[in-house]
Amino acid sequence: MGYILRFSQPESPMSTQIQAELPVPFPPEAAADGFTRRARPTFLYVMYVLLLAAMPVGLLAAFRPAAAQAIAAGMRAYFAAIPEPLYALFGTGYLGYTVAREWGKARAR
Fold first, then answer.
1. Where does the pLDDT of residue 107 fall: very low under 50, low under 70, confident under 90, or very high at 90 and above?
2. Are 55 and 62 in contact, with CB atoms under 8 Å apart?
3. Residues 6+ apart with CB under 8 A from 61
4. CB within 8 A of 67, min separation 6: which ones?
5. Which of 23-27, 29-33, 97-101 ranks highest by mean pLDDT?
6. Among the listed residues 25, 45, 8, 7, the one whose alpha carbon sits nearest the alpha carbon of residue 108
């Protein structure tokens, strides 16, 4: 326990050495931007929810096929109601962000 407490203190020589060896995943000024920190995880969480919601609907289909078909039809109608330009805007923004981020990383090297 004492070793863990000693190691976790910021002024410890060992923690300073380890911090110096760890790669910095992004510049420190980007860490202050809350949107950047939350955007990618939020997108993944939305995708996880959609994928995980398919499991109970699959079980529901085994017992009440009509209800499962109604849920699927509702989701299909919801996604069909989103205008195509909005999908294009989202895709362009996401790809643009990815390209700009990779370009920034390559330029920093």
1. confident
2. no
3. 68, 69
4. 60
5. 97-101
6. 25
